[in-house]
Amino acid sequence: MADDPDKPAPDATYRAIPSGRLARAGAFGRLAGGVAGGMLAEGARRLASGERPRLGDLILTPGNAARVADRLSHLRGAAMKLGQMISMDAGDLLPPELSAILARLRDQAYRMPPAQLDRVLRAEWGPDWRRRFRHFEAAPIAAASIGQVHRATLPDGRVLAIKVQYPGVRGSIGSDVDNVATLLRVSNLIPPSIDLKPLLEEAKRQLAEEADYLREADRMRAYRDHLAGDPRYVVPSPEPSLTTPQVLAMDFIPGRSIETLAEADQAMRDGAMTALIQLVLAELFDFGMMQTDPNFANYRWQPEEQRLVLLDFGAARDVPPETAASYRRLIAAGLAHDRDRIREIAVETGFLGEAAVAAHRPAVDRIIAAIDDTMARAGPFDFADRAFVPVVREETRAMIADRATWHVPHVETLFVQRKISGTALLCARLKARVDIRGLAAEATGTTP
Fold first, then answer.
1. Beta-strand runs (E) in 276-359
2. Cβ neighbours of residue 151 under 8 Å, at least 6 residues apart?
3. Among 85, 163, 345, 448, which residue's CB has the most CB atoms within a 10 Å radius?
């Protein structure tokens, strides 16, 4: 991401977002047809060379993965959001070709054409909406899965960021989620034994909440209240006179990409990531609410003030007390280096499945030992030290291959763990050193 968030990406492409259900269903139909054509061509090629290809191999070709990535980025909304989540979270579960191409969804630069943008804002603000501003920049400064962001200046000189939802997103969530799930099933990425229904229903609910910008404005205010007085964080203030269910107006807060911190000195990187980890712990154990989308674009950095700018609260959701209690027990066992207890709590709370532990107990124990050995080292935890990663990758290889023992944790645990894993990934990217044990002990009232 460029250091200057005020300018649109130079390779931004304007492409009308399909807004009606029939249009979006047709887009999925064309995707299916393109994938089928790619399968036939690849199958013929492999048969001609004497191979007997499997169905999954034919579907997950680079060409078909490119078709999926391009179509989801065009559709935006729930379809693209799920594609981004898969690419960020599935890790080694995905074939490398598909993982790499789906990762492109995080950088796709399709924008609404100006005429489509104008129709959306007329519907939300009325035909004379431009009179509300001294200046409204038609070129978006950012684009994501559900909406794109424009900078605007009010008559009094106040600068706002205006997030405009893509048309048709809210009404298409259910069908988009079902269609993406069908792609996952047909591609044989998900074993038939895994019951996707609870996850799909939760995904629909979460995405519907993210598409309600009035709700996001309320969550933004809640975070401002929680963090009031702490100079390490900045949270925008929503502008209620311009905010509707499909348009969110807020303070424009300048800042650099969080990843530019990689160029800062060690102390600055450590301080920023300490603040971020303390925020995650506060969300889990104090706020009872967590912003569960770990996308790096949801953070900005102000180097002069050394402050984190927090953006995008659509994925902020309540953390049930029982979920927080599970993490509290797991942290206590980890601080005590009680490896048997760590494994037991992981099963009790659904982090690990009983079948997987029963079938792969030695591998599970070696994974826990590798992580515990790393965490037990004196001094701050060095996120750049990835010595335990090859051990975990090697030990999980057989577990991943044993699809009969795959386990889906409770949805609340999945959302919290997604935030924790994404935060750790950012800390690793920045090679930060953080006193994890001390912060965890303080947050949980546990003796390290």
1. 289-291, 299-302, 307-310, 316-318
2. 6, 137, 141, 159, 160, 161, 162, 252
3. 163
The DSSP secondary-structure symbol of 285 reads: I
- How far is the C-alpha of 260 from the C-alpha of 11, rounded, in Å? 21
Residue 233 in tokens: 């964080």
Name the more confident of 189 and 46: 189
**Which of 293, 318, 385, 435 is the catalytic position?**
293
Taking the CB of residue 242, how many other CB atoms lie within 10 A of it? Answer: 19
Q: State the Cα–Cα distance between residues 66 and 50, nearest whole angstrom.
A: 26
How far is residue 94 CA from its own chain's centroid? Answer: 16
Number of Cβ within 10 Å of residue 211's Cβ equals 24
The alpha helices in 104-150, defined as continuous H runs, are 114-125
Model confidence pTM above 0.85: no
249 with 162: CB under 8 angstroms? yes
- Distance of alpha carbon 291 from alpha carbon 42, whole angstroms: 42
- Residue pLDDT, tens place only, 221-263: 999 999 999 999 999 999 999 999 999 999 999 999 999 999 9
Q: How confident is the model at residue 198 (pLDDT cuts 50, 70, 90)?
A: confident
Q: Is residue 218 flagged as an active site residue?
A: no
289/245 Cα distance (integer angstroms): 21
Q: How far apart are CA 272 and CA 234, in angstroms?
A: 13
Place of tokens 């089928």: 36
Lowest mean pLDDT among 130-134, 135-139, 328-332, 398-402: 398-402
Helix axes 411-429, 197-210, angle to 10 degrees: 70
Look up residue 171 and give its two tokens.
Answer: 């009404």
Q: Which residues pair with 183 in a beta bridge?
A: none
